[in-house]
Design a protein that fits this description.
2 copies of one chain form a homodimer.
Chain A: E1 5-10, E2 14-15, E3 21-22, H1 28-40, E4 46-49, H2 53-67, H3 70-74, H4 76-82, E5 85-88, H5 91-102, E6 107-110, H6 122-132, E7 136-141, H7 148-152, E8 156-157, H8 172-184
Parallel strand pairs in A: 1-4, 1-7, 4-5, 6-7, 6-8
Antiparallel strand pairs in A: 2-3
Helix pairs in contact in A: 1-4, 1-8, 6-8
């Protein structure tokens, strides 16, 4: 794999369980788990995306605890993971940040728990990322998923992780882990640590 | 896939970050996320394993909220996931429960973030489960992982999910999600919901 893959965890524009358009609150465990996932799979970074200034301030405060506060001394491993986090207001800001870091405009990849027209399978997306050889952003929605119009503004859309007919409700943390493993995962080879 | 796969989330015997043998506290988000994972992938159940009676009581109280209390009305989807949880004192009790439910003694599969002698790759374990065609329990340790002697008492041991050389610290929630997807996951096929 050659394309640097970033994750964007979006708290807007997403649906709530009644299909209303909302901005969800940031969940600390998402920020931790996705940071640990990013560090384990060698991602260059991930974005916590919310237009709510107060929410961004809260995330910065939490990150400060682990990056420079008591938490950094208590658990340096967690610091390594959370150093990969960036807090931005919207996906366009994440795209800008990736362009500045890599010198190229990233492709954006949407995700959802249900099917979409023109969606791309995991093996196919893995091939596309290899061929593209540039940066990409995997966009995940919190709450009950990314708003439809917004989804259509993205370059690609991944096929859902299939669940049972009457239940397909992974946490966004679990979905992120499975998606990154499907796109970048490999088997352990003898001799590595 | 034919073998019914159960998950056991062990809070003892595990190591803490100083390699001390401890019983960790149950983390509610683990119980939720693994329940949602189990429901999405069609697992018959999962076990929250702790020898600490007070911890088991706390988990029962939390489950009660979502299964029969306010939570059941607020989010019936969460009820569907948490209905799959069983709270037991040790892995032997989980093995007994599976034997009673299925009429067969399950094979036990250990996991860790580092390599072990005789470990089995994911594709190989997938084949083994197909051939075995009976129940299996995937045992995951909380904290800093399952105690070594205990690991050796299990029937199989899965190869680690490879991370970077200097970082391999997924949350147990993320690890469970990736492992279940590697053992049971499939691609979405057109036409399914």
């Amino acid at each position: 794999m050659s394309a640097p893959l970033y994750i964007a965890l979006l708290h807007y524009p997403v649906h709530d369980k009644n299909r209303k358009l909302v901005a969800t609150a940031v969940t600390n465990v998402d920020v931790h788990d996705i940071g640990r996932l990013a560090a384990t799979y060698g991602l260059p970074g991930y974005f916590v995306v919310t237009p709510v200034e107060q929410q961004r301030a809260l995330v910065h405060e939490m990150l400060g605890h682990w990056l420079t506060g008591e938490g950094a001394a208590y658990n340096p491993r967690r610091k390594q993971a959370l150093e990969l986090a960036r807090v931005v207001a919207n996906l366009a800001d994440a795209v800008d940040a990736v362009r500045e870091a890599t010198g190229r405009v990233p492709v954006t990849i949407g995700t959802s728990a249900g099917p979409r027209d023109g969606m791309v399978s995991y093996p196919e997306m893995r091939r596309l990322l290899d061929a593209w050889d540039g940066p990409a952003i995997l966009a995940l929605g919190t709450g009950w998923g990314l708003e439809k119009q917004f989804q259509q503004s993205l370059d690609y859309h991944l096929a859902p992780i299939p669940g049972l007919a009457d239940y397909n409700h992974l946490s966004v943390r679990s979905a992120a882990a499975i998606m990154v493993d499907r796109l970048l995962g490999r088997e352990y080879s003898a001799g590595e640590r």
